[in-house]
Design goal:
Length: 364
């Protein structure tokens, strides 16, 4: 018997090589006379050119930092209010898209972005969002999630207003991503897919997206970063989108819960932080369903899949041991804060602080 479930996938998705050419039409189709463009630094020149050709773009913000700060959101909200803009377009990785999403939800609010960061409810009215991802990893273009930091406090906020109206996923935009970032973002997409699959919130619909994502990612992740092979990069952009559609409903779990203190205290980029515990949790979460998934993906067991992730991390030069981290790792704090994170409740296995401590200690 199939259990009851809900599925909400509200984003108009445009996928394909060359799909960026649809951006001018898409921007005019949302019927906004004034919009703000949030642009990754790498695309700053592209953003400036786009503004020249698009009268509706009233302002551009291209000072987005990785692990984006609330101060960036505050600047975009000021631009939205000053120009009377009713839409935000974002071109960049998850950092640009999340900045745009949070700002869009604050556009017509009487409260400050900081108050919303601290939990004040968002008003119903919000600016429309168009998202154009340039990394293959976060899936932020299809999720109702925004991840923003205030200093070292990194926080995920869920809000239906964060769903973009439309997104353009043009794999060609990812061709310039440096090798190591390609590996890290690719592992982020892998983690989204497998965590959506094992999440306690998984549904038949999210399972379809998760397995489809993993079938695209597993055979192409290595080539996408090692040789920059274009077919592999296209497959990764597709896999990242599918993974986003999977975790948008199912949510992520233990690896993401642990990624927060790892990024906050040890400054790991998001994908590397998720991957840090990925092979450990594949082993700890292994059950019949996960073993079958590993087999579907061409591995004999979860152990073999976990070994493959460990190999990719090691050979790609990612940090795999606590000794590799910036600063001294406080295992007690890592275990406690990871376990207290709300995403840990989505994990199929619930751990004691002591069990997580042992997991981190095994990485010493
Ligand atoms: P990013 O946006 O921080 O970009 C990483 C680096 O890649 C930056 O230096 C950027 O300038 C560069 N870059 C981006 N596109 C490029 C391109 N095409 N060519 C060359 N360089 C390029 O990285 P990300 O991994 O995409 O996003 C990470 C952020 O997204 C984190 O804050 C993470 O927490 C968040 N996130 C959000 C969601 C969500 O659903 N909202 C999901 C996962 C992660």
């Amino acid at each position: 018997m199939i259990d009851a479930f809900r599925s909400y996938l509200p984003v108009d998705v445009h996928f394909g090589c060359g799909a960026l050419s649809e951006l001018p039409d898409l921007l005019s189709s949302i019927g906004s006379d004034a919009m703000v463009l949030v642009c990754d630094r790498f695309f700053a020149d592209f953003g400036a050119e786009l503004q020249k050709k698009t009268p509706a773009i009233a302002a551009v913000f291209s000072d987005v930092e990785p692990n984006p700060q609330l101060s960036g959101v505050e600047t975009v909200v000021q631009l939205l209010k000053a120009t009377g803009a009713t839409a935000v377009a974002a071109i960049g990785g998850g950092s640009a898209i999340d900045t745009a999403k949070f700002a869009a939800a604050c556009a017509f609010s009487d409260r400050t972005p900081a108050e919303h960061f601290d939990g004040a409810p968002f008003p119903k009215a919000h600016a429309a969002i168009i998202a154009v991802p340039t990394t293959a990893g976060t899936g932020s273009e299809v999720t109702g999630v925004s991840v923003i930091s205030r200093g070292s406090e990194k926080k995920t906020t869920h809000n239906p207003a964060f769903y973009p109206t439309a997104c353009i996923v043009d794999p060609e935009l990812t061709f310039t991503v440096p090798a190591k970032t390609t590996l890290m973002t690719g592992l982020d997409a892998f983690t989204h897919a497998i965590e959506a699959f094992w999440s306690v919130n998984h549904t038949p619909v999210t399972d379809l997206f998760a397995v489809e994502a993993l079938k695209a990612i597993v055979p192409h992740l290595e080539a996408s970063y090692k040789t920059g092979d274009k077919d592999a990069r296209v497959a990764m952009a597709y896999g990242s989108l599918m993974a986003g559609l999977a975790f948008s409903t199912a949510k992520t779990a233990a690896c993401h819960a642990c990624s927060y203190p790892l990024s906050s205290y040890h400054h790991l980029p998001h994908g590397e932080a998720c991957a840090f515990t990925l092979d450990s949790f594949i082993r700890l979460n292994a059950d019949d369903r996960l073993e079958e998934l590993a087999w579907t993906l061409g591995f004999e067991s979860c152990d073999e899949l976990a070994n493959e992730i460990a190999r990719l991390k090691r050979e790609g030069g990612l940090r795999t041991r606590l000794a590799d981290l910036d600063g001294n790792a406080d295992i007690d704090r890592l275990a406690k804060e990871s376990n207290a994170h709300m995403l840990m409740r989505n994990n199929p296995v619930q751990f004691t602080d002591e069990a997580l401590r042992a997991m981190f200690a095994a990485l010493e």
